[in-house]
Predict the 3D structure of the following.
Amino acid sequence: MPELGSRTETTVRFLRAARPTILPSLLLCDFANLQREVELLEEAGVEVLHLDVMDGHFVPNLTYGMPLVQSLRRITELKIDVHLMISDPAQYAMQFVDAGADSITFHVEATPDPEPILARIRGGGVAAGLAINPTTPFDELLPHVGSCDLVLVMSVAAGFGGQPFNPIALERLSHLRSKFGPELLLEVDGGINADTIGPATASGADLLVAGSAIFREADYCQAMTRLRCKFQSVNIP
Ligand code: DX5
Ligand code: ZN
């Protein structure tokens, strides 16, 4: 685990204390009523929001960027977790730090040398991590895990919500948990629902990203409760 700067440290401690916790992915939220959506999520006990940043190049889909993070920062105290699905994380990562992100992950597939980017993000007081797609060899990630506060194990190919959960994520989570111990934060993203959230937590996932399972429901509070009651606890000291 890398040395922690004070703001990064506070965020990592917060996330560790919160685990397991569900991170709504805002991809499917009602952007015409963003403030209301955030209030509803706060009322449902959400602690961290997950923002999927896509550049239409690294993935064949386009979403939003720094202005949305800035806007959210103004209206909520919830932590903001930014998932960069972009080809050039070195160019943009610090702009997300400045916009008010609390944690940032970018893809191991996007850069041959993630270490300096991780260090810069952490130097900016933000927790930093790497994401890996299901088809990417795990060996591309493993040498860098020691420089990460969190690792995002994709359980779908990055790019779109609403895809089915790929169980390879369970093996990867278990492997990371047993190899790197309880300190490492493990995030899982894609296809998390009432059937998959139990196995994901049992395999060691701490931060569970959910899009459709929340935003396709009328009542976010009920949706969150339905998911939370399927947590399968693991012993984390
Ligand atoms: C996929 C995104 C996910 C996605 C989750 O590229 O990273 O965060 O929106 O959505 P569901 O839960 O619908 O798979
Ligand atoms: Zn995501």
In short: The chain has one domain: 6-228. Residues 6-228 form a domain with the TIM Barrel fold (CATH 3.20.20.70). The radius of gyration is 16 Å. Residues 6-18 form the longest helix (13 residues).
